[in-house]
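Long-time lurker, first post. I've been practising inverse folding by hand and with some scripts of my own, and I keep getting stuck on stretches where the structure tokens seem ambiguous. Below is the full token string for one chain I'm working on. Before anyone asks, I'm not after the true native sequence, just a reasonable design that respects the backbone. If someone could post their per-position residues I'd love to compare against what I wrote down in my notebook.
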């Protein structure tokens, strides 16, 4: 049984891999870019995988040889945009990476999932429509809201297989994505995220949580 994590060559994903490994889990790291840090941590690194490329996803699937108990889809992209100068390219790019790729990868991963597996998706509270009081960030908000909608359906569809699913906000974390600004470091974020995944069970499948344990609105 293994834990699969995407986007774990750096940032929050790398820290999720480190802490999961320290708990004794077998780690399969899915990365686009190689890093020495993930090579030192993971049991298997499958790199060169662009999650927006179907052939790349299929290549990754072929290299997964054991049942997955936990899957954390963490890879994501944040691009600045504003309504006066909206770029279709930027909107679509964020949709592809943040919403389409995690769903497409899940679809291909289904035969690899163990009975009772847990699927966690790293979203953002910026994808919460109810929580949006500051506007802007169109592509990021829309793409994470789309991810959330997809995960809700997954929770319903995978229930008969006893597979539980959740979306998680990691906090405002000091990573390359935020220019290393934020309220928390990746270590604290990853620790909180893993605690929430520990609590995931069929009766709370299809819910949205902050890494600090707060239930978030859609
Ligand atoms: N940091 C925050 O404050 C914050 C807040 C809310 C939500 N999040 C979410 O948390 C997750 C992790 O973010 P982070 O802060 O750790 O960001 P990060 O340091 O920028 O890391 C992003 C990761 O995603 C990977 N990635 C991006 N596009 C990819 C693609 N097309 N194919 C494969 N991998 C791709 C990157 O790989 P490369 O190295 O190859 O680019 C990298 O491993 C994201 O989903 C993000 O939206 C972060």
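-- Answer (accepted) --
I ran through it position by position. Result:
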């Amino acid at each position: 049984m293994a834990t699969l994590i995407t986007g774990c060559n750096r940032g929050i994903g790398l820290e999720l891999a480190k802490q999961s490994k320290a708990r004794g889990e077998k780690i399969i790291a899915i990365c686009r870019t190689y890093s020495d840090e993930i090579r030192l941590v993971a049991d298997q690194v499958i790199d060169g995988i662009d999650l927006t490329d179907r052939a790349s996803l299929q290549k990754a699937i072929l290299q997964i040889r054991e049942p997955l108990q936990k899957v954390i889809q963490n890879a994501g992209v944040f691009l600045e945009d504003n309504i006066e100068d909206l770029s279709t390219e930027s909107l679509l790019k964020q949709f592809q990476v943040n919403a389409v790729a995690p769903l497409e990868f899940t679809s291909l991963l289904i035969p690899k999932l163990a009975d009772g597996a847990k699927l966690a998706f790293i979203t953002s509270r910026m994808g919460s429509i109810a929580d949006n009081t500051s506007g802007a960030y169109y592509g990021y908000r829309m793409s994470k809201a789309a991810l959330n909608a997809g995960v809700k359906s997954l929770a319903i569809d995978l229930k008969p297989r006893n597979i539980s699913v959740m979306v998680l906000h990691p906090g405002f974390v000091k990573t390359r994505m935020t220019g290393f600004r934020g309220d928390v470091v990746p270590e604290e974020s990853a620790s909180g995220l893993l605690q929430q995944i520990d609590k995931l069970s069929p009766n709370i499948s299809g819910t949205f949580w902050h890494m600090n344990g707060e239930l978030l609105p859609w």
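A couple of notes from the structure itself: The chain has a mean pLDDT of 97. The first strand starts at residue 2 and ends at 6. Happy to go over any region you disagree with.
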